[in-house]
From TrEMBL:
Catalytic activity of the protein: (2R,3S)-3-isopropylmalate + NAD(+) = 4-methyl-2-oxopentanoate + CO2 + NADH
Organism annotation: Candidatus Lambdaproteobacteria bacterium RIFOXYD2_FULL_56_26
Domain of life of the source: Bacteria
Gene Ontology CC entries for this record: cytosol
Protein name: 3-isopropylmalate dehydrogenase
Length: 368
């Protein structure tokens, strides 16, 4: 029996609500497979700040270091509530970015997936969605504009700010390799998303790409400027398979991915570091506008569990069962309110979780 330690970071807003459903799923997976999960729930985000003065307390750092994988909910407060916390201690700068840096999770996988049967969730016309949307955004996660030098001050009597988009060649190469390796396992098509017509960082990025590409002769590379890519995602998302890009570009385009699916609640993610040290989280935020109402869509969180089962624990078949279970709940016409279209039966976060459990329990157990 394999034993895995998982640090659970429910966080703020809808985080604890959707994490509850993830834990229910983990307990069922444990019953169905020769694995034992040791779950260690620790405070992270604004909730941790208000309890301890630190959004990423030492005990949480230790739990993350010791875990085989980290499962995170969502962090962050509304625009107004955020003002109660000093800028540098806010959960984004004080917890999430330090977590990414600490685990060095440089490769963020954000699948944008909508099978044909669920195409009605997309705001795009059926002929645009075609056979379904299935692309993978690979976002560099520990460099670029987010982690460059920053300064704020007064120059010539005016307030000014300077923040740098910094990369060295190794950082670029390692994420491009992830892009090529992922493309190799999928449709062998890699879209390189950049802004080399303006940004020097993209010029270096593309130079490194030319150096890496010859090792992957089977992968076709297509270049697209990031602004054009934003339009192309709406007009013809099916042209894409794997897209690789800088941190900030990936932040923005992956939320657009949620837009073309119909909800950010359909956006799970995996954040991988060296030696497969990883953490998993929904791509979206703490949704303060719906928090506490029990109506958040837990697909993004349960999907993150599926990614963890596959990528951290090698439980690939059970991960497939879990995706299938979630799909079957939607296919039976049940949805949370974010996805409601005429005729759907509205259910709560917890009811969605229960239905996923029912469906998973019915799928054949993976062979040992
Ligand atoms: P958001 O992603 O929280 O919400 C945007 C919209 O999507 C809202 O209308 C929300 O209700 C909806 N939504 C998001 N997830 C949903 C789900 N699972 N089910 C149903 N609807 C869902 O973005 P925001 O409002 O711009 O940010 C809120 C806070 O979250 C901010 O403090 C931000 O910094 C933080 N944030 C955190 C993370 C993270 O933890 N990784 C990611 C993004 C934003
Ligand atoms: C995300 C979020 C974070 C980011 C914020 C909360 C720091 O928007 O994970 O996409 O910008 O990376
Ligand atoms: Mn984001």
């Amino acid at each position: 029996m394999k034993q895995y330690k998982i640090a659970l970071l429910p966080g703020d807003g809808i985080g604890p609500e959707i994490m509850k459903e993830a834990v229910k799923v983990l307990k069922l997976v444990q019953e169905r497979n020769p694995v034992a999960f040791e779950l260690n729930e620790v405070p992270f985000g604004a909730v941790a700040y208000f309890a301890t003065g630190d959004a990423f307390p030492e005990a949480t750092k230790l739990a993350c270091d010791q875990a085989d994988a980290v499962l995170k909910g969502t962090i962050g407060l509304s625009h107004e509530e955020s003002k109660k916390i000093p800028v540098d201690k806010q959960p984004e700068r004080g917890a999430l970015l330090p977590l990414r840096k600490r685990l060095n999770t440089y490769a963020n996988f954000r699948p944008v997936y909508l099978p044909k049967e669920l195409a009605h969730f997309s705001p795009l016309r059926p002929e645009v969605v075609g056979e379904g949307i299935d692309l993978m955004i690979i976002r560099e996660l520990v460099g670029g504009l987010y982690f460059g030098q920053k300064e704020r001050g007064i120059k010539n009597g005016k307030r000014f700010v300077n923040e740098m988009l910094e990369y060295d060649e190794d950082q670029i190469r390692q994420i491009l390799i992830v892009g090529f390796e992922t493309a190799k396992k999928r449709r062998k098509l890699l879209h390189n998303i950049h802004k080399s017509n303006v940004l020097l960082s993209s010029v270096l990025w593309n130079e490194i790409l030319e150096e890496v590409a010859p090792s992957y002769p089977e992968v076709e590379v297509r270049h697209m400027l990031v602004d054009a890519a934003a339009t192309a995602l709406c007009l013809n998302p099916c042209q894409f398979d794997v897209m690789v890009m800088e941190n900030m570009f990936g932040d923005i385009l992956s939320d657009q991915g949620g837009g073309i699916l119909g909800s950010l609640g359909l956006m799970p993610s995996a954040c991988m570091g060296p030696n497969r040290k990883a953490y998993y989280e929904p791509s979206h935020g703490s949704a303060p506008d719906i928090a506490g109402q029990g109506i958040a869509n837990p697909y993004s969180m349960i999907g993150s569990v599926a990614m963890m089962l596959d990528m951290s624990f090698g439980l690939t078949e059970e991960a497939q069962n879990l995706w299938g279970a979630m799909k079957s709940v939607f296919a039976a016409g049940f949805t949370t309110p974010d996805l409601k279209r005429g005729g759907d039966k509205l259910i709560s976060t917890a009811a969605f979780g229960d239905k996923v459990l029912e469906a998973l329990a019915k799928s054949p157990k993976p062979k040992v």
